[in-house]
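#dry-run=false #mode=assembly
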Amino acid sequence: MTDMVPGEEPAVDPPADNGEDPSNGPNGNEPSAMYKRITGIGTSAAEAAVVPILAVVTALIVGAFIIAVTDVDTLPLWGSDPAEALRLTMSGVSDAYRALFVGSVGSFKAISETLFAATPLILAGLAVAVGFQAGLFNIGVNGQMHIGGLAGLWVGFTFAIPAVFHIPLVLAAAMVGGAIWAGIAGVLKARTGAHEVISTIMLNFIALFLVDYLLTTSVFQAPGRNDPISKPTGVTSIFSPLFGSYRVSIGFIIALVAVAVVYWLMYRTTIGYEFRAVGYNPSAGRYAGMNVAWIYISAMAVSGALAGIAGVNQIVGVEPYRAISNFAGTFGFDAIALALLGRSHPVGVLFAGLLFGALRAGGREMQGAAGVPLDLVLVLQALIIVMIAAPELIRAIYRIKTPTKDITTVTSTGWGS
Amino acid sequence: MTAVADSNEMVIKTRATPEEKRATFIGLVLIALAAFTLWAFGLGVEPGSESTFKLSLPQARFEDLSWTVDSRTVALITALVLGFLGGFVLRRSHLKRTNLALSAGLVLFSFAFLTWAAVDGSFSLVGMLKSTVVLSVPVILGGLAGLMCERVAVINIAIEGQLLTSAFVGVIVGSSAGIWVALIAAMATGAILGAVLAVLSIKYRIDQIIAGVVINIFALGLTSFLSRRVLTEAPGLNSPGRFSSIKIPLLGDIPVIGPMFFDHSMFVYITFILVIMLHLGLFYTRWGLRSRSVGEHPKAADTVGINVYRTRYRNVILGGVIAGFGGAFLTLAQVSRFEDNMTAGIGYIGLAALIFGRWRPLGVLGAGLVFGFARALQQKLGILGTPIPSEFLSMTPYIVTLIVVAGVVGRARPPAADGQPYIKD
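#status=ok
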């Protein structure tokens, strides 16, 4: 990721060698190993699949351990009656994971809950994935969801037109809102070299407080309320449930369409090719005549537009169809985990989203039935990301031989000025 | 738009240099502030109304000190000075003084703002300044934790997670083994998370931003999980004692300055000492020179015999210790209980302070105080009932940082090798 600092000479490619030298950094002919690791480029299909699967399995095992050692009631028993303690712990862990399984795929309702939970995850994950493919680290999905979601909500309660027109209009507004918010970071990076990680983190907080403020203005605030809570969106703008009382909604169909569109955009269009080319190697992209600044801005905008849809889904796709303070929650971070797990490929993100959706839906059941707090899911996610980002950990745990040498040479990027 | 076009502009030199453009921009901002002050704080106030600032806290040795000013006069004078500063900057004759003029202008503007907020009433200026210092402590400590890492070229996004986890450990240990043990445990927790960041980014060479994000998610998940699973089951574990304030004799009795700086828990004093020590250490000792060289040009440092990996490990772990100290401050001095996600972005404000303070300890101190002031002001304005929404004050640190990274107010330049793993040949 070479940045566009005004007054700096454009980076020139070092003399081309045979292209096999793994030590080439982001200015060489090879992309950084982290880029490979994130996108899965250059790794064999088997490895691309084995590492995520082992990561998930390992995370679940560690999760079981965490459940065991935090079982306050059983802990004192280990001193007096270890056999009984072991039995109780084992049954506690198996209850928790049974609830996780039953709550995610055990019934039609559970599957609906999984798909319902997966909807915003898939959309937000796609947002981060598009950024990764273009070599941009969009930590700002959270802020883009807030701004996009609120823009969509405004269209939602302002107009009363048939749903066939209203829902596309809501989506468009959300996409524009998210795209503008992400575009700020894109423009700052392209024009001034400000690193997108810092600017998107700052924009997240600005959006959070801006939404808090807007929710207390008369435009958004529900009549008769003093706290930051919005009016409900219009009936015609609601992402209505697909199967009666089950919660999975049109939003999931929209997410599937988004997966297809992102696939088409990234792999079947010129701009998608340019995104990937610049992500793979910005210097080469520039050398080939691509306008890297413009690609950074547009990739951020596409990413933000997807985040905007995820944001509006959390308002018009979830009862009671209104916005509250911090409605995007931790989706911004979940999205990073998803994009890494899905190797930044739209289909990978879809499966990762379904998996995390299952964890969420099952986690709720686990919380209710087995008394294990839902926050365990966050811990599992963190463990999964770290093992995806550092496959050496997986190899060390499972004693897999290192297939390629280049995996240890990672050239990360700095703040970029 | 492209780099090529920009560099051509530089060569031709027919346009203003970036410094001159900046001066024009800042000059216009100052004049706009002057106009705003005149309109809102001056003309918007009834003539003859007065604002009273309380300069002492209840039960202080010199009680009931206060200072009453004519609200309109203050605003008019401020507007005049701001206009003068704007004109001075716009002349572009002393480009190096631009930032000084801007800071002076902003201080004056804040004063005029406070005068306006306290119109026909009284405002505890010393109370706000005292809470400015208290609220800036975790921000400064977070910034220093980041500084330790980034000066040796390891990006630390994980400050938030380090603060949160050590705050949590502080509560648990403090409730069961006393506050001093808790302080040590919290610092050890910070060190462990620092070591995790160091191993991930130095040994495994994970992208440091991903490593930081992972630690933050992990910290948030684990502390919320444990807090629900353990603290709700055993509420006794959520009430550690508190480090009480130590009033420094004589100095603590000075009006305004005394309560502001010399009547705090030991965390505040140690934070200020730490800033000075890091400043001296970084710029005047062998350790500092070595650390900086590892951050700027690790290969050159390696060539002259500095162990790059060892320096990085040591400093990143020490950074974790500082963050752990900051986490302990949150639950052992500021409040004495743990709540889910209680840091609520303080770690990121620390990161912002690091950038705003341009990777220097004294800069972090200044930035931390500015951000602490914004947070203190936000709390007080809620009490005064001014029409300014508190959300906009909450945004201040983030907007300021965005402006700084965009290079509008001076260019923030990180250590040259920041974020790049070092591979020894």
